[in-house]
Design goal:
14% strand
């Protein structure tokens, strides 16, 4: 029996690049996005329309969005924090607006510098501002699987927040494992509950590999019926509130695993690895991707000279 199609979204151009200490030049950002567009992704998170003062690394959002090559079948999503950001993004022909808040009150205050009630009010204003546009709306709910400051977040609280957004008319949501606290049985249970309570919601899962469980969590989510996942080229990105933690699930590692398990991702792995290989020079440091270092499973290496000498 054929296994289902899995849709992958690469978030490195936003979630990855905004965390880098050096500014990635605009031409380089565009080149990476264009290269990713040719790999077969369902969605690419291209940039953020946050204030350039808040995130100077993405101060070129308009130029990036105006200059990238749009490939049919690929959705180009951007992070939007407020109505002003929405107005800027609408002028760039975005396909989707990604809105963010935390399931945890403490993380929301630390990350967004406002209460969850204020976030809900602000995000509701963005939803209203976008309602008359063709732009799709996705809400990324952080710390669904645990908060580094509060610990576990109750499943009932996650469902309550999802319900509030559903009442606003939002029908796309990303459940985020913001600091890599998720584990497979927890993932399976939350995904099953979310799908049961919100059957019309398009769900995406966003995992971090902080504790080495990203791939196991992806498989658990697939078991629960999820077919959309965020991941980041090279494993770039991370949350500043998990000191010493590694970043996002690595796109090429997820593609490699799913390919071996017989799933159809629509992504050319060799082409993707060639894009990932550009990153170390671009960000000026090593990247977490293990498959980039080792090659895919059937990558072959020459035998030592002494092996032939033994014939």
């Amino acid at each position: 029996m054929n296994k289902p199609r899995i849709y992958l979204h690469d978030v490195a151009p936003r979630d990855g690049f905004q965390n880098e200490p050096i500014f990635i030049e605009t031409d380089d950002k565009i080149a990476i996005i264009d290269a990713l567009s040719d790999c077969g992704f369902a969605k690419i998170e291209a940039t953020s329309f946050t204030s350039p003062k808040a995130i100077p690394a993405l101060r070129d959002a308009e130029e990036v969005m105006h200059r990238i090559k749009r490939v049919p079948g690929v959705e180009y999503t951007v992070l939007i924090p407020n109505v002003r950001g929405a107005e800027r993004a609408l002028s760039c022909g975005i396909d989707e607006a990604n809105l963010v808040m935390s399931a945890s009150e403490t993380h929301n205050r630390a990350n967004l510098r406002m209460t969850r009630d204020k976030s809900l009010l602000q995000l509701g204003q963005i939803v209203q501002a976008l309602n008359d546009s063709p732009v799709k709306i996705n809400v990324s709910l952080s710390t669904v699987f645990g908060c580094p400051m509060e610990g576990d977040v109750t499943q009932s609280e996650v469902m309550r927040l999802m319900g509030l957004f559903a009442d606003m008319g939002v029908n796309r949501m990303t459940l985020c494992d913001t600091t890599g606290m998720a584990y497979p049985s927890q993932v399976r249970e939350i995904c099953q509950t979310a799908k049961s309570e919100f059957p019309d919601m398009t769900l995406t899962l966003h995992f971090h590999n902080t504790r080495g469980l990203a791939q196991a969590n992806v498989l658990a989510a697939i078991d629960a019926g999820i077919d959309r996942f965020d991941a980041s080229l090279g494993g770039l990105g991370g949350c500043p509130f998990a000191p010493g933690a590694s970043g996002n699930a690595c796109t090429e590692e997820i593609v490699h695993m799913l390919e071996l398990e017989g799933f159809d991702t629509g992504i050319d792995l060799d082409q993707l690895l060639a894009v990932s290989a550009r990153l170390p020079d671009l960000v000026q440091h090593d990247i977490p991707s293990q498959i980039l270092k080792a090659g895919h499973r059937l990558t072959r290496h020459p035998a030592p000279d002494y092996v032939n000498d033994m014939i």
